Amino acid sequence: MKRMALFALPLGLFAGAAMAQSVLPQIEDADASGDWSLTELQTAWPELTEEGFAAIDTDASGAVSQEELQTALDNGVIRPVEQDSPAQ
Q1: Is the pTM value of this prediction over 0.70?
Q2: 53 with 38: CB under 8 angstroms?
């Protein structure tokens, strides 16, 4: 967990505990692997770097699982993505 916090501040992605969110954003899993790659996550977080991705990928598998992404959101490592609301 300390590793994640170390990367959050330099990346400017720190959102604080008040921004914790329990719903994952809709992010396309382009390769249907069940996890997200850096490129896939960059569609929601364009500023995400390789170092930031590594901080989220806590098991160092090279992909981010739903659990890892939720933990990163809950701990303020990344900000929740504002979802576009349907046009009225």
Answers
A1: no
A2: yes
Other beta carbons within 10 angstroms of residue 20's beta carbon come to 13
- Both tokens assigned to 26: 């809709």
**H/E element, 5:** helix 2-11
Nearest to 24 by CA among 76, 65, 77, 80: 80
d(CA 73, CA 80): 6
Query: Which residues does the chain have with pLDDT short of 50?
Result: 1-22, 85-88
- What residue has token string 């396309």? 28
Tokens for 21, please give them.
């969110």
Q: Tens digits of per-residue pLDDT, 43-61?
A: 999 999 999 999 999 999 9
- Report the distance separating Cα 18 and Cα 50, nearest Å: 26
Alpha helices in 12-60 (DSSP H): 38-41, 50-56
